[in-house]
Design brief:
The protein is α+β, with helices and mostly antiparallel strands. It has 16 helices and twelve strands.
């Protein structure tokens, strides 16, 4: 959009004035030169005329120096100086008959054109008074001017004056032409600006009529100045019908009560926003409006209001429906939450049952293993007892037949001694197996809290697993110092160790590898740090991230259920109140670090 045209600068600040002053200085110097030539040619000895020429040159110098600061001041100096010089020359020489009288019209024109009306009136009146006085004095005989100058000198003066007047005429024409061109340019710019204003007015009207909201403008007396059709439609009226009316003349009285407090605050200078219901005057249709009142300021004074009314009936209806849906959703969520809570309780019960089942399954496997292990010493004991019975029976027969010899008695006694020793060794083996099994099975079955030595529990678990593990070439190394006394649950702790040992024997080692599984423990403050580590094949990162997830196993269908590590994690964290972390490097092995408190938190096995 074109900006409004800029008015021409003041004459005293324009470059045209500076150019005119410089040209006048050159014209004066040229006239001085012509007059000096005339004086020299005529051989004049009127030194006053030479002095006038010197004064003119000095005047030009002063004007040129002053022009550097202000062209208008230089112009004033030239006009005033030339007028004084001409007036002095008029009074000294030839009076009203002097050729310099022709300079006065030039000075009057220049002062009016350049310096304004004051200077025009001043120079004109002064010139008329001076000429009148000189003419009256000459006519009355009170003052007689000197004889006229030489014709050549007069010619020089007249030529200079004619040249100066011609310059003034050309300059005036150029200024007038420039002024005319500027006026035409301003006229065209004004026409363009008027057309642009009219176009903006049309665009504003179209914008207001096409806005999806009611827009209105009021004065400080609440009189409607302008509005669009949507605003008028809210009150069942036309735009022309509403414009000029007071707001309270067409707004229903029932709606004025809640509206006026907001309206008065806006007229006091505070913008307002509110929501109200509008009732159509003819149809009675109810709509919801979001209203915005913005004050119009002129300085610190409110001179009007701008009103924006947005129909939000659909939005309010949608909000109502959404609220109803939210209420219904909250009911559904509450119901679903209760169902999920029940499902979670059942899941927890299933998990605990699964843990107990896993423990029972481990215990059953342990029973089978111990039974198999007991079969050898028990069978040997039976065989030895049978042999001892035969020896005793033979000895009895020999005694009764009185055929017992001393050598035979010694032989029977030796056989009885060896048999008794063998029988005792097998029975001790049975006793050891039964003691280990009794303690481990009691802990596994009862899940009762008690004080125990960690070393004894770990060694007991390993001993109870030894019969089932001896078929493989791997070995278990223990580094658990004695006298680490814990107040915890040895049964769940044993289950953790059983699962970790079985998991290592099942997954950790490659076929044919004679692996080493180490179990270490150390006391650190009030916590026990246990490490179960193997030197097997390790795990990939994706397997490591899922190792504690239920039903995750790399050997599903090959003996793995995917529950062992999940049960380990659950027992360590929830039952024993500790934490477990796993680290693994492919090709280097896996390490489980378990941190347990010396005193386990309160635990209810029935929960």
């Amino acid at each position: 959009m074109t900006a409004a045209p800029t008015p021409p600068p003041a004459l005293e600040e324009s470059s045209t004035l500076a150019h005119f002053v410089r040209a006048m200085e050159r014209m004066i110097l040229a006239a001085v030169g012509a007059m000096l030539a005339g004086l020299l040619v005529t051989g004049s000895t009127e030194w006053g005329r030479y002095g006038s020429l010197a004064a003119a040159v000095a005047l030009v110098g002063m004007s040129h120096r002053l022009q550097q600061d202000s062209a208008i001041r230089a112009a004033r100096l030239l006009v005033m100086g030339i007028w004084i010089a001409v007036s002095v020359n008029l009074m000294i020489y030839a009076g009203v008959y002097s050729a310099t009288v022709m300079i006065y019209p030039f000075l009057i024109a220049a002062s009016g054109w350049i310096l304004g009306r004051r200077w025009l009136r001043g120079v004109t009146v002064s010139t008329l008074l001076l000429i009148t006085a000189v003419a009256w004095l000459d006519a009355s005989g009170l003052w007689k001017p000197t004889p006229r100058a030489h014709p050549l000198l007069v010619w020089a003066e007249l030529s200079a004056l004619i040249f100066i007047m011609a310059f003034l005429t050309v300059w005036a024409r150029r200024v007038l032409t420039d002024g005319r061109d500027r006026a035409l340019s301003l006229s065209r710019a004004l026409e363009l600006q008027v057309a642009q204003v009219a176009a903006r007015e049309r665009q504003l009207v179209q914008l207001m009529d096409n806005m999806p909201a009611g827009v209105a403008s009021f004065d400080a007396d609440s009189r409607l100045r302008k509005c669009n059709q949507r605003y008028a439609d809210l009150f069942a009226a036309g735009v022309d019908e509403l414009q000029g009316q007071l707001m309270m003349d067409y707004v229903p009285k029932a709606q004025m009560g809640p509206l006026m407090p907001m309206w008065n605050k806006a007229l006091a200078g505070s913008p307002q926003t509110y929501r109200r219901q509008n009732v159509h005057r003819i149809t009675g249709a109810r709509t919801w409006l979001d209203a915005s009142l913005k004050p119009e300021f002129e300085g610190d004074r409110v001179v009007g209001l701008y009103v924006l009314l947005v129909d939000i009936t659909d939005k309010v209806r949608a909000e109502t429906e959404l609220k109803a849906l939210n209420d219904e959703l909250e009911v559904r969520v509450a119901k679903r939450t209760a169902e999920l809570a029940q499902a979670m309780d059942k899941l927890n019960e299933s998990r605990d049952e699964l843990i107990r089942s896993q423990a029972k399954a481990g215990l059953s496997a342990m029973v089978a293993s111990v039974s198999h292990e007991l079969s050898t010493p028990v069978g040997n004991s039976v065989l030895v007892a049978s042999s001892l019975a035969d020896i005793t029976r033979q000895l009895q027969q020999q005694v009764e037949g009185n055929i017992l010899k001393r050598s035979a008695l010694l032989e029977h006694n030796k056989a009885l001694g060896e048999g008794c020793h063998m029988l005792l060794r097998n029975l001790e083996r049975v006793d050891t197996l039964l003691k280990n099994f009794k303690q481990v099975s009691a802990d596994q079955a009862s899940e009762q809290r008690r004080s125990f030595d960690l070393s004894e529990v770990v060694r007991g678990v390993v001993a109870s697993l030894a019969p089932s593990l001896k078929s493989q070439s791997h070995r278990i190394e223990l580094s658990v110092p004695p006298d680490i006394l814990m107040d915890s649950l040895p049964g769940p702790l044993g289950q953790v160790l059983i699962n970790l040992i079985n998991n290592a024997y099942l997954h950790a080692f490659a076929p044919g590898q004679a692996g080493v599984l180490s179990i270490r423990a150390a006391l650190r403050g009030t916590y026990v740090h246990m490490v179960v580590e193997d030197n097997g094949k390790g795990m990939e990162q994706e397997v490591l991230l899922k190792i504690f997830e239920p039903f995750f196993s790399t050997r599903i269908g090959e003996g793995g259920t995917g529950l062992g590590m999940s049960i380990v994690d659950s027992i360590v964290r929830k039952t024993l109140g500790g934490s477990i972390q796993v680290r693994s490097v492919v090709g280097a092995g896996t390490s489980f670090e378990i941190i347990l408190p010396m005193a386990a938190p309160a635990y209810d096995a029935n929960v």
